Amino acid sequence: MLSPQEMRKLIPFMDTVHYLDNASVVPSSTRVWAAMEEYGQKYPLNYGVGEFPASVEAAAKVNEARAKLAKFINAKAPEEICFTKNTTEAINMVAYGGPWEARDEIILTTVEHQSNIMPWLRLVQDRGVVVKFAQATKEGFVKPDAIRALVTPKTKLINVTYVSNIFGTITPVEEIGAIAREAGAFYMVDSAQAGGRLTMDVQKSGCDFMSICGRKSMMGPQGTGALYIKKELTPMLKPLDIGSRAGRLVDEKTMVLNEAPYKFEAGVLNTAGMIGLGVAVDTLAEIGTDNIQKRIAELTQYMIDGLLAIPEVELYGTHDAQKLAGVISWNVRGHSCSEIASRLGKEANVCVASGAQGALLAIRPLGVNGVVRSSVHYFTSKEDIDALLAGLKKILA
Ligand SMILES: Cc1ncc(COP(=O)(O)O)c(C=O)c1O
């Protein structure tokens, strides 16, 4: 198993800064870059079209990556994984392609990222669906009862984030999956913030769709993501884009679509990125998500305790890191979040995020327009957190 220190050595960027913005993006390891370089040197081709060996090799590597990701999330078959350019695209694929019609009710939560709200609001305008929001608690927890209270015979989809990108709270995805099953509704989980931090098990959670982000804690390349679609549902979902590879033209009036996953992967995708994502998955599997989760909880508690000792800091959400997945949000009284993030960057070489983080409904109950968000990963060191705390104290001195 790779220790946190060994993992850190695989990400040279970590030698240059104190990086606490892992909820935005996590730089890929040298293993990922090496795999993409190998692709660039040995088989830098489209996959699945050429018959010559290098092209066949590229196709084999993409298929391998698909199979690895499928195994990692406990999908039943690689065909249940469609590669996408990001999480947003994966969510739009379900919103556009699903059987959502006028007066169908879609339950979301107030801690969704706007990428998991806006595609559904468009359906309110375009198709007359009804979107309902289950209110999270003040600490950012999605309670199954809040979902249950919104269920009616018209509920068609329950769609929840696995981890809040503001509070870091972990949604009880299995319990909510049971509610969806009882209601006869489809069930979707946005795992953008959970991937690489928590176990992703599509069978246990009982989800029909799961959106996956490559570039965050999965440690894959930017511009990569995936959508898990339960096999039985792939014929039902219409592809967002169609064209070459998604199917073929038969004559002036007729076209046929391929089977999943190809029907959802029109045009040429990011071949190097998909291969890189497969290698990132290998590394996560080697460390083990249980180990990652344990280490993240320890570091998060250390960060919470340190921040709580600074009287000017207002920390949002729970102070119990066991209930979190490595992400916390806070503000410093008398200072804007952007001032704090910018000064920490310039004066202490500490990287944190600031702003609304695309989660307006989540931060609104806090009575602020933005937060400072600090987030850790397996390879984060206590020194990174000490640098944050020392930097803050210096700014406040
Ligand atoms: C919970 C959540 N969902 C969706 C997204 C959108 O992700 P992407 O940029 O991969 O489309 C984010 C990004 O921050 C997120 O945190």
Structure description:
- It is a single chain.
- The chain is of the alpha/beta class and 397 residues long.
- The chain folds into two domains: 31-286, 3-Layer(aba) Sandwich (Aspartate Aminotransferase, domain 2); 288-396, Aspartate Aminotransferase, domain 1.
- The protein is built from 13 helices and 15 strands.
- The protein has helices at residues 4-9, 30-42, 53-72, 87-97, 118-127, 144-148, 173-183, 202-205, 271-287, 289-308, 337-348, 360-363, 382-396, and strands at 18-19, 81-84, 105-109, 130-134, 155-161, 186-190, 209-213, 225-229, 247-249, 255-257, 313-315, 327-332, 350-351, 353-355, 371-375.
- Helix 8 links the parallel strand 6 (186-190) and strand 7 (209-213).
- Helix 2 packs antiparallel against helix 9 (271-287), helix 3 crosses helix 9 and helix 10 (289-308) packs parallel to helix 13 (382-396).
- It is globular and about 75 Å long.
- It starts with a helix and ends with a helix.
- Pyridoxal-5'-phosphate is lined by residues 86-88, 113, 115-116, 161, 165, 190, 192-193, 213, 225.
